[in-house]
Amino acid sequence: MKIVCLDALTLGDVDLSEFAKFGEFVSFDMTKSSQTISRLSGADVVITNKVLITKEVMDATNLKLICVSATGTNNIDMAYAKERGIPVKNVAGYSTPSVVQQTFASILTLLNNVRYYDDYVKNGEWVRSEIFTNLDAPIFELSGKNFGIIGLGEIGKGVAKVASAFGANVCYFSPSGNTQDVPYQRVELDEMLQACDIVSIHAPLNEKTKGLIGKRELGLMKKGAIISNFGRGGIIDESALAVAIDERGIKAVLDVLECEPMSENNALLSVKNKQNLLITPHVAWASFEARIRLVNLMVKNIEDFINGK
């Protein structure tokens, strides 16, 4: 078999040599759309994260298997792959612990004013202090807070478990309308936004979640409440969020944006209350351990394909 990885750079520094056991393995750091067909010449299997595998690509190549190095398959023409009889295998569940951990690392950074106090010490202010502590930037506990979760999949459940361990009062909103057998109250979106001190999004982007949180919804939130998005960009109206941060004291933690990489004219780059905004570049999924699990599961996907599973 010939296996081609089109965007290995998105996997970082994990070892990909295991794929060579199946035959010839060729890896490219990044691939432009104009290069895709030529690089897949003679390939039986493609590994891709963000490189599009379109009808044109499938018609011009002889692919027998499409491996997606992610959970989402939106970069694949799934309907045409099915028509052509080309299996598409993605990877699910590999990043749950990583995303849950990053969710709380980010939320707690705001609640505990970690950046302020780290700067305070490193700028030499503590050296010049007359007392042993500094209380200029208030710290807030998770215990007793109302913690709402939008999307109670595996990641949402993991976040709920940790929030509960901190002593938060957890509730959830299901964009799909499903009620689950869980020890958390199911509420409607408006009720959650009005009641919760923290709202954390862990839902996919689809027709029910696109633009779910806009100007009206942000206006329902308590002043000073935190909204986080570890689902997909496009669920929150970023321009409306920028206004809410500056005008209503809303705090925000984001790991995903509608346009990635971030566009230079994104309204969030111009917020005045920068201390109330934390943005990470879509890294929550990418702990070293999660990326190792991802590669191992892709290897298994190829093994299953070879064995007719």
TrEMBL record:
Name of the protein this chain belongs to: 2-hydroxyacid dehydrogenase
Superkingdom of this protein's organism: Bacteria
Domain (D-isomer specific 2-hydroxyacid dehydrogenase catalytic) ranges: 13-309
Gene: hprA
Lineage: Bacteria, Pseudomonadati, Campylobacterota, Epsilonproteobacteria, Campylobacterales
Matching Pfam families: 2-Hacid_dh, 2-Hacid_dh_C
D-isomer specific 2-hydroxyacid dehydrogenase NAD-binding domain residues: 105-284
Record family assignment: Belongs to the D-isomer specific 2-hydroxyacid dehydrogenase family.
Keyword Oxidoreductase tagged: yes
Keywords: NAD, Oxidoreductase
Keyword DNA repair belongs to the record: no
Molecular function in Gene Ontology: NAD binding; oxidoreductase activity, acting on the CH-OH group of donors, NAD or NADP as acceptor
